[in-house]
Structure formats: C-alpha cells, structure tokens
Amino acid sequence: MSLLDECKIIQLPKHSDPRGNLSVIEGGQQIPFDIKRVYYLYDVPGGSTRAGHGHIELQQFMIAMSGSFDVIVDDGFGRKKIHLNRSYYGLYIPKMMWREVENFSSGGVCLVLASTNYDPKDYFHDYDEFQAVARGQHPDHPPR
C-alpha cells in the first residue's frame, strides 16, 4: 500500500433537520488523530496556490467549509489531486506528505485540523529535499 493510499476522503456525520445541517468532528473519532491546532485559508486570490510544503510528523484534515478547491498530495513517489467541495467531506493527509492547495473558487474557505502545534522544524519547504527524505536518500534522515 502506497502512502498516497492513506490520503483519503472521510465522510463526516451529517445531522439534518428543517433548521439546517450539523456535522461533528472529534479527534480520534472521525479523524485518526487528536486535534492540536485549527486554522483556515480564505480570500485566496484566483490563480494562487497555498501550502507548497511537506511535514515530517504533522497529520492534517482539510475541509471545504465554503466553495471548493483542489488538494495535490505527493509522497515523493507519486502525486494525486483531490477536489473538495462539500462541508461534510474532508481529506485526511498523513505525515511525510507534500501538499499544495489550488484552484480556489470564489468565496472558498479551507478549514485545516492539525495533529500538532506549529513547529517550523517539522516543515519541508524544498521539494527536492522532501523527495530525497521520502525516498530514503537524505543523509540526515533515515528512510521512512
């Protein structure tokens, strides 16, 4: 099984009644980690790409709270693009995954639930370095 296969859409519980819909996310329940940080992307100008980095330990869960966008995930061996456009679906992204977020619709809002607090040491900002580590070719990092 490829690490890309672990990037998956998870359908959240959706409780509907005449007053509207309600979805619930509890860390360790609907998603496979406890939530340590929450942030969101909004007012992204047309044609802009967000993210463009990888993480060593951080896991994420992304939801299109409004509008839509595409998430490109890359494990250093292959890539896939996932389109998010429903607030009751989210994308689970495991650790050691490069990600890019693009193609935001007008009014698109991306909610991100993260497994760790912000730590600049957890980031890869250089794709070649990320790919070398992911493939076990980097002298400072053992193979995953």
TrEMBL record:
<dbReference type="InterPro" id="IPR008894">
    <property type="entry name" value="QdtA_cupin_dom"/>
</dbReference>
<dbReference type="Pfam" id="PF05523">
    <property type="entry name" value="FdtA"/>
</dbReference>
<feature type="domain" description="Sugar 3,4-ketoisomerase QdtA cupin">
    <location>
        <begin position="6"/>
        <end position="133"/>
    </location>
</feature>
<dbReference type="InterPro" id="IPR014710">
    <property type="entry name" value="RmlC-like_jellyroll"/>
</dbReference>
<dbReference type="InterPro" id="IPR011051">
    <property type="entry name" value="RmlC_Cupin_sf"/>
</dbReference>
<protein>
    <submittedName>
        <fullName>dTDP-4-dehydrorhamnose 3,5-epimerase-like enzyme</fullName>
    </submittedName>
</protein>
